[in-house]
Specification:
By secondary structure, the chain is an alpha+beta fold. It has a domain at 358-494: 3-Layer(aba) Sandwich (Calcium-transporting ATPase, cytoplasmic domain N). The chain is 49% helix and 20% strand. The chain is built from 21 helices and 26 strands. The strands form six sheets. The chain has a seven-stranded mixed sheet with strand order 12-26-25-24-13-22-23, with helices on both faces. It has a six-stranded antiparallel sheet with strand order 4-3-5-11-6-9, with no helix packed on it. The chain has a six-stranded antiparallel sheet with strand order 14-21-20-19-18-17. Helix 16 links the parallel strand 22 and strand 23 (535-537). It is elongated, with a radius of gyration of 36 Å.
Length: 674
């Protein structure tokens, strides 16, 4: 509990103890006597003003803040809220006790006690939910280490410029996004991605702020300023998520705006109309009884269960999603996500890794390793992704498995060559000349041998007979001393969870999946078929993707939501145009993350289906609370209007409904089994 909650608890205990003492003192103090009117009363009741002031002590101890808020609301012309209802109901109950001189002030105090107890419970529940989310997002670094004169100096992360070298020691948070320049370590990324398995990082790897360095000391060259780094953006998203309200929250706000004046009018009518009718009929109007029913009606009508539990449900849902590595920018997006029935994907970087890898060497006339060695040295001065993939594969020194019938060789995953099988370093001094042939490839001299490496156009232009590849991917042909030596197959690798992602979406009720990509038709159709995606549209420019999404939006059914999932800067316009934009946060561009409504922190497409399931759980809890609270309220209002419920029952019903609704709302925070 925080100080405010502890203070409230003390007030409740003091007021409750005083109320019990006064109640028993009033009941048992003195003999029954006859008052001035000849009525038999307790001796204590003769000194009614004294008891009134004594009872007001616990009433004001527990309820002074409610009265203060009610008065402030009246002065600000925002009259009809739960504070006003509680103030009117309890002051009315005190007035009835004064008029009837029965000394029954305990009811008013009890109403305030129960209401404040419910408020305390709600405050604690909301605080616990916020603490859970704060613990999840406790990723803001306090400092960054800069090395000066051989010693580490702690500085404010805001003061670190792009391109600076910072040192991250074991146990410290990575303060700013950057690239490891020295050292090797294991990173805990659970606060960002929801993934419990640590990630290895070494020289050349990108690291994002908010990760915890677990093992070794690393030096990181910053690639962004602190304000633009991942940790700052995440915290900004979480802090501002509550500002974007859902339709359900807007409905509750509007409902309370009209509902409260309506029930106040109903209570006034209940207090005045029946007595008036009874007076006209010549019968006893029993005014005090009807006023009491009206006050009970007011207590029952308090809409705090709805007003509190609905925003809390969305807050908990956003926190639960964040715990799973899914950042939702507002409850309106969470509500929209629950209605998603069409999902469109980008391909590269979304369903595939966006990283080129050598998948095979085909029709090689020399040893596979030797072919790769010549190709890697010929490409060693290039920064092209395809060149980088060839060099990386050569340096890893993978074992190759050759199909004797076809002559095709593929690298065996995760198996490094044993010692004694040669050195796999790139030695640039072996390359005596390099000529880049625009749009076709490279001509180089490696170890005195003429190497041609490039596409089929290069082979045709140099009159070299080559063999076509029947596999999908980028084909790099290699010729040595004018003779064809074979080709290297390079392709973007499908993410391990991509197939599971599409399957999970269909299980989650998504009826249509579409791939929108700028890649070639052959590659796009191959990936779509492998992943069981319903439709594929290929060779699209960024503007073409927007047009495709427009068409999908026009074709969708009523109340259906279209989500687009992308990662690149060229996806930003589409992410903005779709009903829901989902961006890959780890590798995604800043523009894509900024334009998206939901960010997946670990780039795992399987999280899309989980996000939808979390949203649906959240909305299910919202509707459970709405139906439950309104149903109980209507029943109790009828009972109160007909005199079957007293004020004690009314406050029990009100606080009980609120407590149950809050407990139900907190369920949205737990999403591990969703």
């Amino acid at each position: 509990m925080n100080k405010k909650q502890k203070k409230m608890l003390i007030r409740i205990i003091i007021a409750a103890v005083l109320m019990v003492i006064l109640h028993f003192a009033y009941e048992f103090l003195g003999e029954d006597v006859t008052d001035e009117s000849g009525n038999l009363v307790k001796a204590a009741a003769v000194r009614e003003p004294v008891w009134f002031f004594l009872y007001m002590i616990p009433y004001l101890v527990v309820g002074y803040d409610i009265l203060k808020k009610a008065l402030k609301g009246i002065l600000n012309r925002q009259i009809f809220d739960e504070n006003f209802l509680m103030a009117v109901a309890t002051i009315g109950a005190i007035a009835v006790a004064l008029v009837e001189k029965n000394g029954d002030y305990t009811e008013a105090i009890a109403v305030m006690l129960f209401y404040q107890t419910g408020e305390l419970f709600q405050s604690y529940a909301v605080g616990k939910s916020r603490r859970n989310i704060s613990a999840l997002m406790d990723i803001r670094p306090d400092y960054a280490n800069i090395e000066k004169d051989g010693a580490l100096e702690k500085v404010d992360p805001d003061e670190v410029e792009t391109g600076s070298i910072i040192v991250v020691q074991p146990g410290e948070k990575v303060p700013i996004d950057g690239i490891v320049t020295e050292g090797r370590t294991t990173l805990n990324t659970s606060a960002l991605t929801g993934e419990s398995i640590p990630r290895e990082a070494s020289e050349g790897d990108e690291v994002i702020s908010g990760c915890i360095n677990m093992t070794g000391v690393i030096k990181v060259k910053t690639t962004k300023e602190f304000g633009e780094s991942t940790v700052s953006k995440i915290l900004d998203l979480v802090e501002n998520s509550s500002s974007r309200k859902s339709k359900s929250e807007d409905f509750i706000s509007k409902f309370a705006r009209y509902y409260t004046p309506a029930v106040c009018g109903g209570a006034l009518a209940l207090a005045l109309l029946p007595p008036l009718v009874l007076m006209i009929m010549g019968r006893d109007p029993a005014l005090g009884s009807w006023i009491y029913r009206a006050l009970t009606f007011l207590v029952i009508s308090c809409p705090c269960a709805l007003v509190i539990s609905i925003p809390l449900t969305f807050f908990a849902g956003i926190g639960g999603a964040g715990n799973a590595g899914i950042l939702v920018k507002g409850s309106n997006y969470l509500e929209a996500l629950s209605k998603t029935r069409i999902v469109a994907f980008d391909k590269t970087g979304t369903m595939t890794k966006g990283v080129f890898e050598v998948n095979g060497i085909h029709h090689s006339s020399i040893e596979n390793d030797k072919l790769l060695e010549y190709a890697a040295h010929a490409e060693c001065f290039s920064t092209h992704p395809i060149a980088r993939s060839i060099i990386k594969t050569y340096q890893e020194g993978l074992v190759w498995k050759t199909n004797e019938e076809t002559g095709e060789a593929v690298p065996v995953p995760c198996e490094k060559k044993k010692m004694g099988h040669g050195d796999h370093r790139i030695l640039r001094e072996r390359v005596s000349s390099v000529e880049e042939i625009g749009g076709n490839g490279i001509a180089a001299v490696v170890d005195g041998r003429d190497i041609l490496i490039g596409n089929s156009k290069l082979m045709k232009n140099r009159s070299i007979d080559f063999k076509e590849c029947h596999y999908v991917g980028t084909v790099v042909h290699v010729a040595i001393d004018g003779e064809y030596a074979g080709h290297i197959l390079i392709s973007d690798v499908v993410k391990p969870t991509a197939k599971e992602a599409v399957s999970g979406l269909k299980k989650a009720g998504v009826r249509r999946t579409v791939m929108l990509t700028g890649d070639s038709k052959q590659v796009a159709e191959s990936v779509a078929a492998d992943l069981a995606i319903d439709e594929v549209r290929s060779e699209l420019l960024p503007a073409d993707k927007v047009d495709a999404v427009e068409q999908l939006l026009n074709d969708k059914r009523d109340k259906e939501v279209l989500a687009f999932v992308g990662d690149g800067i060229n996806d930003a316009p589409v992410l903005s145009r779709a009903d829901i934009g989902v961006a890959m946060g780890a590798l995604g561009s800043d523009a894509a993350i900024e334009a998206a409504d939901i960010v997946l922190m670990d780039d795992d497409p399987a999280k899309i289906a989980k996000a939808i399931r979390i949203a649906r759980k959240c909305m299910r809890i919202v509707y459970e609370n709405i139906y439950f609270a309104i149903g109980i309220k209507l029943l109790c209002l009828l009972l109160g209007a007909f005199g079957f419920a007293n004020m004690w029952m009314a406050i029990f019903a009100d606080v009980g409904v609120m407590v149950l609704a809050v407990i139900n709302a907190i369920r949205a925070l737990f999403v591990k089994r969703v």
